[in-house]
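From the shared-data thread, chain only:
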Amino acid sequence: MDAMDRDPSATPRALATEAVHAGREDLATLGVHAPPLDLSTTYPSYDARAEAARIDEFATTGARLDGPPVYARLDNPTVARFEEALARLEGTEAAVAFASGMAAFTAVLLARASQGLRHVVAVRPLYGCSDHLLEAGLLGTEVTWTDPAGIADAIRPDTGLVMVESPANPTLAEADIRALAHSCGSVPLLVDNTFATPVLQRPVEQGARIVLHSATKYLGGHGDVMGGIVACDEEFARTLRQVRFATGGVLHPLAGYLLLRGLSTLPVRVRAASNSAAELVRRLATDPRIARVHYPRIGGAMIAFEVYGDPHDVIAGVRLITPAVSLGSVDTLIQHPASISHRIVAEGDRRSAGVSDRLLRMSVGLEDVEDLWRDLTQALSAPPVAPPREAATASEGSGAVLRPVAR
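Structure, as tokens:
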């Protein structure tokens, strides 16, 4: 990857230009136009002594191996291109990709725990599975939940991480990242930047030290690839690479290829969808069927709104908009967080974090805004649909049923 190393003397390039060219600078010298897709799981080597020395170096430092790859769990050239590109977009020294967003978050927690720092300070709301992973202590971590003003007081000698999601899933609440970073002192601040993407904010510029993405969402952008990535400094990236090698949560090369391709249109997609979202917010804010609309100051393609009627009727009533989990695709998706993405969070914690039972979350896509509004307004006016008894019981439960959920 030497040919793709960043040149510090080069003229800074706009985000849209970086999105198209980052991770691809060597393609012309290779005589190709599209990035190669390397699907190899292993690579030939006739010098076992040299390979042993390189593997020893990785085990000691976690640095990328010089020369050809050894084994796909150590590194992959296609995935490395995606990592280089995302680091460039987020303005960090490095990035490390994983099989999913949760695999990426797990690696961060394991990396900090390996240094004896198992305590995490976190601000709700977070994505439901992130909340559950911290709350359940499945990795031996201990969490202290606090509001932004209480971060400094919550930090302990064994605190390895402060975590916030901004804009938050699903309420779109925003945090003052710069103020939070100041409160953290020497403890790294991790910002889940999945909703905003580097198009709308770059948390490291405001003092965050670790940036997390569910790459499945906007970075991929088409609902057909799963992945996660952590952008950070090179020192922490080396530990993450060692965790990834040991635990096996690697990103498949085809996923890396698709995610790199997704980055090239990321600024265009986010800005176009954000324009439509802002228009829908303007209309929803004056609609008498809507109790409250949530939309971040930085903008974006995510909308949350609370209805006076039954939110399940709205979900059942859409026709163009797809009622489904996840977000960030070219098509518009809508879901009921209390039933799906945040079902795994205890009801009291969910509600105290602002996730009401009447809240709907919508990921606005690239359809014409008039078509989206027509579909949404007819769904808001749709007559009630009586669900099967089993479904009604599940939706009225305490939230204590623990089952996998998606964003």
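The chain has two domains: 2-264, 268-395.
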